[in-house]
Design a protein that fits this description.
homodimer, 297 residues, 15 helices
């Protein structure tokens, strides 16, 4: 019987220690930049994307060693996107996860550059010659291309632009789905696919994890939208209702809270169904998608 | 006898047509983002970095085909850095190369995201499976890691942070050299080294091009500092004297105009000397470093 709490905490410990190893020390010149990078990477993130990548790799028989650098790169890309999203020119947020946002501590210019440097550091890591990884150069290039594509103008950054442009406009469900599948979904899907590749998945397992990733990614974002309305501010560490306040495009705003919940649970079940070919090795992935849908922060 | 003007214009035509091919179309969703990316990429840049990469590749007997995607990636990284440098939180520039800066046309949020997307697009390209390139996966990873390292917190972004922090402070020559070798020099050096790798240079040629890249990179930045003081505003397309106005750390401010000129010319000669092992194939590189030092814009 899987204990998800133990599963997560053991892996988060390894992720955090690897992130520490893969980031330049805070004393290294320019110290302000490296401190700003570390501030946001170690600001209490849930490590959902690296956890999913590790779980996908393990579900097909791969080892955590072979996936840890890519998992850390994924978290650096996620962190850079949060730093830039919080900027005054974007969402203008003062707090995230209960702590001051990067630009409130280090200033706007350093925050922009810390985001730039984290994105770049992710690719340094992904291209890295890690003797422990056991992955071929061709696999590394494929992983790098999947992650970069998911993060770029046709993925996460594209979703952020459409999200921004849809504020205070009345938008239809297809636009919300575009925003969600691009802004959050693309990177989550990439985490599953690259975990599969680095675990040497066969085609059937790769397809199963792809399907799981599509469903879990959208479920994650709907759950986020719901939390913005009903969440406990002290657990979330950010203002509840901030999406509503901004007129952001969300599921509950368009289809209501009850229907949003139903849809998130349906996607959770579809994600779990997709894992059928993988057997018991995929137990952590089943538990993770339930955790994602039912979480309170 | 090499005609540098013809050499440059032939290659810039190929670079520009490849950049057009390697960027999503301006109509593609989100259109505002792709238009913003294209606006700055096609804003009259001199394509110095891709030209140097191509010339390095050709100097060791490689073909332009094998280096064109990486050369375009290099230009995208350079362009992203200019977009972010021009932001209100950074240098707050309204004009670059005689045209409005990205954020003046598309707004600050889109400009930040267009920069992010260009940086990411560069890595999509570098990881790309280009059947024409003829480079091995291992060489591509090595190229990617050299470029990412040169662009990151220990390279270009680091140089930008120290440059920013040194404004209005009195700084010593070692700090100016740090800024120059990191902010501009790192990417120029990376252009030479990756051009060498993609042209299958042997160790001696790689070392020669590395030495050339170190000298040419610093010469380029000293020439830039000089142009900021004595340049013709109509040719430069930006405010002459803007570095002085901001109290920026420059060579002429510290060692005077005449000594700066002497130093730039000395570096040019050292760059040319470094090419001795490469013979006549390196003629374009010799002409390019002279062009860099003697240019009027």
């Amino acid at each position: 019987m899987l204990n998800l709490e133990t599963y997560i905490s053991e892996r988060v410990t390894q992720i955090d220690s690897a992130l520490d190893r893969f980031l330049p020390m805070g004393e290294r010149l320019p110290a302000s930049l490296h401190q700003a990078m570390r501030y946001s990477v170690f600001a209490g993130g849930k490590r959902i994307r690296p956890l999913l990548m590790i779980a996908a790799c393990e579900a097909v028989g791969g080892s955590i060693k072979s996936v840890l650098p890519a998992a850390c790169a994924m978290e650096m890309i996620h962190t850079y996107s949060l730093i830039h999203d919080d900027l005054p020119a974007m969402d203008d947020d003062d707090y995230r996860r209960g702590r001051l946002t990067n630009h409130k501590v280090f200033g706007e210019a350093t925050a922009i550059l810390a985001g730039d440097a984290l994105l770049t550091q992710a690719f340094i890591l992904l291209a890295g010659a890690d003797p422990d990884s056991g992955s071929s150069a061709a696999d590394k290039l494929r992983v790098l291309q999947i992650i970069a594509t998911a993060a770029g103008s046709l993925g996460m950054v594209g979703g952020q632009v459409v999200d921004m442009e849809s504020e205070t406009k009345s938008v239809e469900l297809p636009i919300i789905e575009y925003i969600h599948t691009h802004k959050t979904g693309a990177l989550i899907l990439a985490a599953l696919q690259t975990g599969a590749i680095l675990g040497n998945a066969d085609n059937q397992a790769f397809a199963a994890l792809t399907r799981y990733g599509e469903c879990a990614g959208l479920a994650f974002q709907i759950a986020d939208d719901i939390l913005d309305i009903v969440g406990d501010q002290s657990l979330l560490g950010k203002d509840v209702g901030s999406d509503v306040h901004r007129g952001k495009a969300t599921y509950p705003a368009l289809i209501g809270l009850a229907e949003s919940r139903r849809r998130a649970e349906e996607l959770r079940d579809m994600a779990i169904d997709a894992l059928a070919p993988l057997g018991s090795e995929a137990e952590p992935l089943r538990a993770l998608v339930s955790f994602i849908v039912d979480r309170s922060r």
